[in-house]
Amino acid sequence: MVKSQCAKLLDIVTLLMKQTEEQPQTERDLGACQDGKLLIMDMKDGIRQQSEGLESLREATTGAKTELDSLNLTLQNLLYEKSFYETEIRKCQDFRSAYSAEDISLIPLEDYRSLTGDAEAKEDHETMLKRLSHEIQRRKDLHARLEEVKKQRAAAEASEAKQRAFLSELSAQLKGIGKAAEGVRGQVEVRRGAMASAGSRADLLPMPLYILYSQLVACVDAHGLAASVAVEGSAQEAEAFHEEAPADQNRDCGPDARAEADGDIEMMEAEGRRGGEAKPGAKAAGSGVPKRDLYQKHPLSVVASLLNSESDSGTLMAVVFHYLPSLNIITAEAQDPADNVFLANLFPGDTGAESPNEANNQLQGGAFKFDMTRAGRPYRWAQHLAGLDFLPAVPSRMPEGPSAAALSSGIAEYRSQARPAVVLSTLRQRKEAAPSLK
Q1: What is the Cα–Cα distance from 371 to 326, expressed in whole angstroms?
Q2: What is the predicted pLDDT for the residue at 420?
Q3: Span between the terminal Cα atoms of the chain, in Å
Q4: Sign of the alpha-carbon torsion through 92, 93, 96, 97
Q5: Are residues 300 and 326 in the same domain?
Q6: Do 62 and 134 belong together in one domain?
Q7: pTM of the predicted protein model
Q8: What is the DSSP pairing of strand 301-307 with strand 227-232?
Q9: Are 229 and 214 within one domain?
Q10: CA angle in degrees (0–180, nearest 5) for 152-156-160
Q11: 337-385: per-residue pLDDT in tens?
Q12: Is residue 266 in a domain?
């Protein structure tokens, strides 16, 4: 429409321009101008209508675009929710609990029905919902009971801590009372009994040390001597020592150990027949225990202290008694090394240079000598205090002189040849081999 109006307007303008060039303006020209003006007005009206229509179209397009964006956003939300749910479903399907399904599963259907009395047959979905409701209520009750038990436990722990604190304070108070009682004891000259210093460690003493300890304590109590006897050492180490001792004895007395000892004895017997000496690298017959363990001490020791007679405080001299389980002897040494001189020759001839246990002299192929570099010495009087009375190698009434020296030399050679061990081993072999000869 606008194109046709533009064409008509162009024709009128062309006609007017030609007529103006040929002849002056006439009424016809005025009519053409009037028609052109009317066409221009019509064109403006058409353009205005098109503009209004275009604006309406724009508004409609904008509204449609807004609606489309809203729908697109809703679609994206739905797709995101779908993806989220699918991811969560996969997580649930792939989830592997630390607890087995048997541990956290629902109670069996039969038990559920017996507990709830719901025996009616219903749809599986409805039944499962009821079972879940019952299970969550049951677990809530159990959780409540658990919390209650935890509170009871916390209260019990608090009560125990309070009692422990009370006992700790009581121990300190008892120690204070004990210190205060020491002064009173000194004033009234109360004797110390065995339980005053023994404690629970006395029961862990080996038998020789226990006999020595009990006899010394009894003597001090009976005669009122200015002396004290105590047990020193770690009770825990003593308990561990007693637990390891049976295992070591079983290992040393087993068939393998006996066979090894017999083999060593045979080797020494062969060496003796050849008239030679054992090789330096060979193991000594009857050694039984490695050299580094021969002098191993028991963790507990007994300390006998002589107190000053003139005053209640101060120690005149203290003697420490140790027990060597591998050698089965008691050693004595003074706490002050300068006082060791008073222990030697306490009785005539008792220098502590040799082990009074003749069984020790059979060790290391009869060449065993007690280590004199050690502070503790195996005095005979220490063995007697512990109830250890060993049979001497020679009679006590042996006359002195050249014959006694020759006898001592012969006994040393006798020990080196391990004659008793050879005889006993040979008898054992013959007795065990006799059935095979029949």
Answers
A1: 14
A2: 64
A3: 146
A4: positive
A5: yes
A6: no
A7: 0.46
A8: antiparallel
A9: yes
A10: 170
A11: 998 888 888 888 888 888 888 888 778 776 788 888 898 999 999 999 9
A12: no
